[in-house]
């Protein structure tokens, strides 16, 4: 394997469509989920999910997606104007306003001239990233399930089970106590790897879903998926048995990604499963933006991006660099596509909760995975 990776997923029988799920790593009960499709029973489009989960009208959903596309263009210009003082970006889905954080008051005016709101912070993304790295180097004690930079509060949030000794972690890391805060959680996140796909592929004793169709540097087709689906060399077969491939790259834990090279009868497409939503790129939406997920168990669900750079201590090991969302997911949704509008965001890694009571779900971004293995997203 070439370098540490990042994950993505969704499966295709015959065609590599985007947006299913994955089923390889055992669930909490230790057994894979039975191989039957569930999402079709509640199939809906991304537009439907935006309306249902975010309480939007059809017009409101369309307006939100347009506003986010416009915000991406403004963010690029404002971030350039902020230069080294850039501390992150926040999008408010209710007001449709973009705020760019800066660590130097002198850059407020240039950012505002670029069309974004501006707010001065002490740490910003770079400062919070340093705190996160130092926490990781110190090593989490039992009961600490992860941490993430919350740019809205300009702190790193340490998530811990009741009774965890978070004070020793902060002390061992030598970080400024004012730069961190602790939140108690009820359960440890787990990978959603006991999954079945809408369009599934099989490998060994499990099933997974294709994340996003890609081509490698030589133009050969394949797809990215979750690393805990299989190790390098593991054979894969499409759900209808007509297509085949092999895991060429795989990383988990640390990251959670894999590249499966198609060896016969798998034709890549840029469509997300369960909808006519075409993927046209992999530009990352800002924190606060609406994001939607497609999975084989629960179909489409939407929510917002809460943070980037999340570290999660899964039972199988620690994974860094995840993006945190309040989108729900359940076993079987692992590996499914996260998209914002027409832009691929990443692949479902794991989380906690469910789609009845709500939950937290993490994904790994698409861009670093594509770069690590010289892959190109299929966009047409």
UniProtKB/TrEMBL annotation:
- Indicate the residues that form the catalytic site: 228, 256, 334
The disulfide bridges present are: 208-229, 292-302, 328-355
- Write the signal peptide boundaries: 1-23
Single Gene Ontology BP annotation:
proteolysis
Going by the record, the broad EC class of this enzyme is hydrolase
* UniProt-listed Enzyme Commission number(s): 3.4.21.-
Residue span, Peptidase S1 domain: 195-365
Keyword Aminoacyl-tRNA synthetase on entry? no
Q: Which domain of life, per UniProt?
A: Bacteria
Give the keywords, sorted.
Answer: Disulfide bond, Hydrolase, Protease, Serine protease, Signal, Zymogen
GO MF annotations, alphabetized: serine-type endopeptidase activity
Keyword flag Signal: yes
Query: Gene3D superfamilies annotated for this entry?
Result: 3.30.300.50, Trypsin-like serine proteases (2.40.10.10)
Q: Per its UniProt record, what Pfam families does this chain match? A: Pro_Al_protease, Trypsin
Q: Name one GO cellular component term.
A: extracellular region
Annotated ranges, domain Peptidase S1A alpha-lytic prodomain:
125-177
Report the family membership. Answer: Belongs to the peptidase S1 family.
Protein name as catalogued = Streptogrisin C
The protein's organism comes out as Nocardiopsis aegyptia
List the lineage, top down: Bacteria, Bacillati, Actinomycetota, Actinomycetes, Streptosporangiales
């Amino acid at each position: 394997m070439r370098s540490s990776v990042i994950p993505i997923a969704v499966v295709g029988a015959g065609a590599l469509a985007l947006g299913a799920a994955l089923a390889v790593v055992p669930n909490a009960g230790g057994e894979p989920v039975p191989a039957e499709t569930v999402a079709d029973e509640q199939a809906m489009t991304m537009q439907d999910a935006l309306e249902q989960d975010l309480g939007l009208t059809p017009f409101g959903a369309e307006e939100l997606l347009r506003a986010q596309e416009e915000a991406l263009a403004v963010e690029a210009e404002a971030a350039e104007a902020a230069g080294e003082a850039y501390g992150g970006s926040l999008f408010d889905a209710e007001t449709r306003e973009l705020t760019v954080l800066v660590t130097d008051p002198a850059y407020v005016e240039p950012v505002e001239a670029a069309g974004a709101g501006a707010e001065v912070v002490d740490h910003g993304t770079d400062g919070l990233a340093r705190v996160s790295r130092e926490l990781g180097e110190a090593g989490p004690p039992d009961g600490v399930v992860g941490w993430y930079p919350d740019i809205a509060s300009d702190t790193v949030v340490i998530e811990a089970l009741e009774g965890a000794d978070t004070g020793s972690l902060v002390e061992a890391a030598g970080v400024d106590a004012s730069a961190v805060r602790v939140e108690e959680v009820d359960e440890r996140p787990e990978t959603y790897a006991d999954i079945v796909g809408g369009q599934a592929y099989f490998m060994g004793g499990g099933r997974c879903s294709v994340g996003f169709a890609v081509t490698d540097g030589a133009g050969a087709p394949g797809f990215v998926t979750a690393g805990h689906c299989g190790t390098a060399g593991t054979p894969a077969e499409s759900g209808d048995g007509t297509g085949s491939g092999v895991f060429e790259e795989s990383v988990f834990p640390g990251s959670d990604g894999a590249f499966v090279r198609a060896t016969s009868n798998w034709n890549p497409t840029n469509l997300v499963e369960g909808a006519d939503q075409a993927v046209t790129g992999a530009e990352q939406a800002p924190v606060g933006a609406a994001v939607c997920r497609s999975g084989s168990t629960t179909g489409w669900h939407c929510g917002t991006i809460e943070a980037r750079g999340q570290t999660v201590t899964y039972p199988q090991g620690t994974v860094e660099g995840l993006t945190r969302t309040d989108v729900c997911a359940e076993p079987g949704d692992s590996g499914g596509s996260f998209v914002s509008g027409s832009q691929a965001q990443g692949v479902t890694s794991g989380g906690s909760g469910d789609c009845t009571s709500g939950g937290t779900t993490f994904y790994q971004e698409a861009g670093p995975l594509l770069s690590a293995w010289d892959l190109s997203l299929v966009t047409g």
